[in-house]
Amino acid sequence: MIDPLFISAFVMGLIGSGHCIAMCGGIASSLQLATDKTKPIYFSIAYNLGRAASYMAAGALVAGLSSHFANQSHWLSLALAFLSGLFMILVGLYVMRLGASLKWLESLGKVMVWQYIVKLNKFLMPINSLPKALGYGALWGWLPCGLVYSALTWAMTGNSAFEGALVMLFFALGTFPAMLSIGMGAQALHKLLNHPWARITMGSLLIWYGVYLLIIATDKLVH
């Protein structure tokens, strides 16, 4: 049976994929201009597989570190549970575009990580082969994104690096339908995911789930 944490990560990716379109839609669309124009979907798949690989690497890293210390401290484990609930609420507000609730985190990511990684772009352009598309996706998987960072707070609650990687894999799979549809020209899905009412509905679901996580964490704290 699939762990509820993995299902939640998949749903989070699916719900938040409208934000993925806004962040990476231009990149995914540009793969249509690849040299092999008869097989653009292959370039899109390679790009998204590379992106998923980076998410999994990040998930394994944070889960490996956090599980090591959480196993030695009950209070740290509780703190991570509260953190995941809090970030779920923040990402809900972010998806609804009711405030720049995670902009500060993205800005921090740009300063600490992205400004160095983005320089590797020059080695992958032009994207005229599947290995380059895969590498390009792996590179852009490190693009500062509040939604991804929020998913990583879930990965941090994993019991091992492997479990953290799986959380991020399921999150990535949730974003695949929207991201792959860009390369296939499915504009209807893009409009639906970015419609104000759709954002409010999906954001509300994330907020309520965040509250639920906080209630569970509080119950563990009390008992």
Describe the structure.
The protein is an all-alpha fold. The protein has one domain. Helices cover 78% and strands 0% of the residues. The chain is built from ten helices and no strands. It is globular. The two termini are 28 Å apart.
Q: Can you count the beta strands?
A: 0
The whole-angstrom Rg is: 18 Å
Q: Identify the overall geometry.
A: globular
Q: What is the end-to-end distance?
A: 28 Å
Annotation field: number of helices = 10
Strand-residue proportion: under 5%
Largest sheet: none
Q: Regions with pLDDT < 50 over 5+ consecutive residues?
A: none
- Average residue pLDDT: 77
Sketch the topology as an H/E string, one letter per element.
HHHHHHHHHH
Helix content: over 70%
What is the SS-derived class?
Answer: mainly alpha
Number of domains: 1
Transmembrane segments: 6-31, 52-69, 75-96, 133-152, 164-185, 197-217
Pfam family, one: DsbD_2
Protein name: Cytochrome biogenesis protein
Domain Urease accessory protein UreH-like transmembrane: 9-212
Which key features would you list for this structure?
single chain, 223 residues, mainly alpha, 78% helix, 0% strand
How are the SSEs ordered, and which strands pair?
Elements: H1 4-15, H2 17-30, H3 40-70, H4 74-96, H5 103-117, H6 130-140, H7 146-155, H8 161-183, H9 187-193, H10 196-222
